[in-house]
Records
---
Amino acid sequence: LGSVVVGDDPASLIYQRGKGKAAAEAGIEWFYKQLPADVGQDALLQVVSEMAADDRVDGILVQSPLPAGYDYDYRQVVKAIPAGKDVDGFHAENVGGVATDGSGIPGCTAAGIMVLLDHAGVQIRGANATVVGRSSIVGRPASYLLLARDATVTVAHRHTRDLAAVTRTADILIVAVGKPGLITGDMVKPGAVVIDVGINRTEDGICGDVDFASVSEVASAITPVPGGVGPMTIAMLLANTLMAAERSAGITTW
Ligand code: NAD
């Protein structure tokens, strides 16, 4: 698993350390490159191309966001990663494969949400699932995976007129927005399963998008923040790397 970080943003470095440690624990070799913030788009693309050509590397990550104030284009960087090594699931070929026939490498967070639901024995087929947030990193891929599993999916976002009316229909409520306390108990159907993807740094520490105190009174199950979806994202990164390695070795069990 190859990882590239540009700059020295403390949060990015913490994420990288977590991923590197998890990879080592799983017996996955970790190739880490930290580049100066001003390395530039061309040099970054060169490093990605070298990893792309390296047979020892089955999966490639480039930490986003790239440093502000420089002329970086993250989409071009993602394009430079061969789809088969794009273990973040960001490449258009993987997104398309997930959205159509399920063949693409799925986004790690969305895939982790599905594993959490399955592990908890949640019935997905026929359930009303509402995803709040439509980012290409979380909301959209989560909606594709839920649809593929026969849920009735509603995607809400910043222009949704009456958010509570939409969230109250959900048997499965997935929230990926980045606004602490956005979802309160009165917005949740009794018995719903609530997955809180948000990671917000506040004066009181890290919290999600869901007001845990009020929602946990109403929901039948709810993920905590921290400790819920976050660790699953890293676990699925390792699973995606294994899938990429097996595919490139011609093992087609995935
Ligand atoms: P983003 O900023 O790209 O997207 C946010 C989405 O929320 C947008 O689609 C926007 O339309 C919607 N939104 C904004 N305000 C809203 C409102 N008032 N009502 C309804 N929808 C609203 O964010 P992202 O990258 O998807 O991340 C969302 C959150 O999830 C962040 O807190 C991020 O840190 C966290 N996150 C966690 C993990 C994890 O592993 N747990 C992974 C990725 C992102």
Note: The first helix runs from residue 10 to 25.
---
Amino acid sequence: MYDLLLRDATIVQSTGRLVADIALEDGKIAYVGGSPGGKAKEEVSAIGHFVMPGVIDGHVHFRDPGLTHKEDWSTGSRAAVRMGVTTVLDMPNTVPPTVDAKTAKAKLAIAAERSVANYGIWIGATADNAKAINKLWDDGVICGTKLFLAHTTGTLGLDDDAVHKLFLDSKGLIGVHAEDQRLLDKHHKAHAKEPRPEHNDVRPPEAAAEAVSRLVRLVRETKRRVHICHLSTANELTILEPLFGDLPITTEVTPHHLFLSVETWQGDKNLIKVNPPIRPELDRRALWTAVKRGRLNTFGSDHAPHTLEEKAADYWEAPAGMPGVETLFPLLMNAVKHGRMGLERLVEMCCEQPAAIFALEGKGRIQVGADADLILFKEGESTKLKKSELETKAGWSPFEGKEIGAPPVRVIVNGHTVARNGTLMDDLPKGQAVTYKR
Ligand code: DOR
Ligand code: ZN
Ligand code: ZN
């Protein structure tokens, strides 16, 4: 007996759409096709609805352990699944930072206890942890190594020699925060006397472009596989464009860089202080063009919650980062509504490509045997984002009051319905650790 049968759903894949029935059993997709034989405990007519795999957000900062006044694995994952993100990969700049077997396993234990989303973790690169990285990679404990080329929230910045050594000595995927520390230092100094400089001037586009150029050289030399986080500028795209598909480099773009710009932001500038910074309109448009042309691989939220009290500090003291996991899917759906991209591209960049890049077992595709992580949704409906509805502990969003796509009609994690129309169910089952096929 199936647990759930979705009848006449329009399944969206990067290659197109098809109408089919989907049956779920024991947390897996048990059947996809014309009417299946057999009965189901629950049957839903999905006529007029789309179904896609749950969103995989390869870039969240859930702050747990150590910074749980901002977020924790419970609140962060509730925010995620409420709006269709069924799998998250957590960044290592927690307290303590996730940099070895002990801290990695401790974080996974917390996630196992508290997360209602499926989860995996990044390990942070330090000057001397290549050996630990390699063991954790071989043991399937981490999705990859996060490398901060510049200092941002946390303590994980690395100098040139250490970066080169990491590329030579470690294995697995390297995810990179690409800003050049030397250029940042120079511009920081130039603006140090101003009380409220433009963040985009303090950490200018050229710092991102310089770091990306350097990564390209490192990848050419070492052949390592690199995933560049949060591309934010036209210049980075220009550098990568002629290399597309030739080098083992993939890329991520965030909703905040796609939907916010220096010229159009009207609120408190500290709220959108983020590294890399929100850029001018020109960059934002270049990012959308790249999305449309299939030149970027993944959407990631870079969910980096800080409290409003922390954001109320002066420019220099205010922490960088903003919540985003809860608005990732509805913002992108609204972009589909307004013709920025097709649903096929959305599924490609939210599901299929992250599953492939991180080699996630059972994720990213609707097929028999895959995990039953699904979103049932309608297209073309929108709503206004209400602060009161947010699950993130940070309790705010730069998109409050803005038009977003309607919440998914249903979000299903491991076969369980966890949210309907933006409302979480009462008892949420625990998420599962992702596994890697590599
Ligand atoms: O703005 C940012 N915030 N950029 C980062 O790289 C880290 C993040 C955070 O963890 O707060
Ligand atoms: Zn970053
Ligand atoms: Zn980040």
Note: The longest helix spans residues 205-222.
